[in-house]
Specification:
The protein is of the alpha/beta class. The chain has eleven helices and eight strands. The chain has one domain: P-loop containing nucleotide triphosphate hydrolases (Rossmann fold, 3-Layer(aba) Sandwich), CATH 3.40.50.
Length: 251
């Protein structure tokens, strides 16, 4: 019997909405709540998980696993912060692999898998949805992003997958964006996190770090921790004197 805990897909629809950012920070924040996990870069044609985390040398990749050259355990790389990832190859020669066998390989892992999705709804994305146990949908609070997210949700529903919720990312709280309840009305899925637009995310990215470690009191970090607590069944209380901590940590 497989001992794999579960596969949580981080999907969107539209590209560039923050899937990889959510995958990285959710992975780190879940570890803080004691949930071991590994992020797998399933964005084969535009792999950038390893780039965002600053890995320079990637000797073995997911493509080697899928081609049967190596065991999946040999492809795990460990980031200085302790994050565990399975990178995809950056070479354009390695995009034509068949991901249909991915679940069989993932079954050899004992921890939870966070699957960082490609955008769109091509066949490979449908295959990826099919092999997940649960899907988290990331979207920005704007119409184009929501309509694409809705298509992904519909495909997941048809495949009888659990969509655990929507993460609204890059929330600015201005009058041009959709509210959580509008998004919930359209998608019929609860918004379970609202990650603010936060320049610390780009700074953390530049430094190849999850923002929750780079600036633990940044508004986005607090929201990632809140989301991880929710998904791991913990109660989350923001640290006391948040405002003060934020002011001092930004100096
Ligand atoms: P995707 O994986 O969906 O293509 P990424 O996670 O790579 O998207 O994010 C795209 C860009 O947006 C990155 O440069 C990232 O740093 C930036 N970004 C993501 N979320 C936020 C946010 N909440 N605030 C500011 N910048 C963000
Ligand atoms: Mg990405």
């Amino acid at each position: 019997m497989s001992s794999l805990e579960k596969i949580l897909g981080i999907a969107s629809g539209k590209g560039g909405v923050g899937k990889t950012t959510v995958a990285i920070n959710l992975s780190a924040a879940m570890k803080e709540f004691g949930k071991n996990n590994v992020i797998v870069d399933a964005d084969i044609s535009n792999a950038n998980l390893s780039v965002q985390l600053g890995f320079q040398y990637i000797p073995v990749t997911l493509q080697d696993v899928l081609s049967g050259n190596i065991n999946i355990l040999q492809a795990i790389r460990i980031h200085p912060t302790g994050l565990r990832i399975i990178p995809a190859s950056l070479s354009i020669d390695n995009v034509n692999v068949d991901i249909a066998s991915l679940r069989t390989h993932l079954e050899q892992l004992t921890e939870m898998v966070i699957l960082d999705f490609p955008p769109g709804l091509r066949d490979d994305v449908r295959t990826l949805i099919g092999l997940c146990d649960e899907i988290l949908v990331v979207t920005n609070p704007e119409l184009t992003s929501i309509t694409d997210a809705l298509k992904t949700i519909e495909v997941a529903r048809k495949m009888k997958k659990i969509v655990v919720g929507i993460v609204l990312n890059r929330v600015r709280k201005d009058k041009y964006e959709l509210t959580s309840s509008e998004v919930e009305d359209v998608c019929e899925i609860p918004v379970i996190a609202r990650i603010p637009e936060d320049k610390n995310i780009r700074k953390a990215n530049f430094n190849h770090m999850p923002v929750i470690y780079y600036k633990p009191y940044a508004p986005s970090s607090i929201e990632f921790l809140r989301l991880a607590a929710l998904l791991t069944g913990h109660r989350f209380k923001p640290p006391p004197f948040m405002r003060l901590r934020q002011i001092f940590s930004f100096m």
